[in-house]
Amino acid sequence: MENIKQKNHRIGWIGTGKMGFPMAARLIAAGIDVTVYNRTAAKAEPLGVKIVSAPAELSDCDIVYTIVTDDKAFLETVTGPKGVLSGSVVPKILIDSSTVSPGASEDVRSAANAKGVMFLAAPISGNGHAVKAGKATLGVSGPREGYDIVEPYLEKLGSGVTYLGDGDASRLAKLAHNIMLGVVAQCLAEITVFTEKGGVERHAFLEYLNKSVMGSIFTSYKTPALVNLDFTATHTSKMLRKDMELALAAARDMEVPMPISNMTRDIVQKLIGLGYGDADFAALIEMQAKFSGYDIKSENIEVSDGLEPESE
After folding, report:
1. Which pTM was predicted?
2. What is the CATH number of domain 172-291?
3. H or E element in which residue 94 lies
């Protein structure tokens, strides 16, 4: 294999949705050579770089990064007739941050390995706002040699990147991460309603919590949604249910009991049943208030989400 460690790499980018667009924008802003493919080309045009009409046109790039919607899009853009791996020329490294099934990930890994391409799974933690602010993080698994090459680029995508091992270790870690996302979100709903019903203003309690040792980037960036009951989706309740069910299925296969996680999954299902399936899972607070006999209302107060852009 050609030594690509000591060169400036050409990066092909597939997917410019809510996450992919700000991620690609960060690389471009850092002066990295990026060429883009997106199914709807117009959505990628504001990036101001070259756009190709098919994934196969990125095959001569050193590194190709994919972040697409589902298994079907992932397989089509990589192993399909016009996919990145469809021709005799292929990239040296393929990185994926899509939320896909273990089966689809393994199919792509096998196809990549058969052509001598190193495949890295790189799930990302954080929504599009966190990415734009430089506060998203990535966990990566696959060949260590490939990770060492792409690490400098991955570090430009957020505030931290961690190598987690071989194969799909990073996807397992992301499932664990999203289990905690659901559990913490439900706990946050419970304690916020608990304190508000007891006489503490919601925004004041959340400000206190965010400044405490229990506060986090997550509790901070969910604060505006909780204070103003704005459930515009960054991650829908249905998406959270899917994440939790994938994790719980893996836990059953490994005979790992997950009692709190199973309970939280059932609570999220109840939220969906009440009509919040396409709303952000922060709507858990409205359901919690309803079950607490409390008429919760928006405070209509401007509060920080803790995601102010990095200072230049």
Report:
1. 0.86
2. 1.10.1040.10
3. strand 93-96
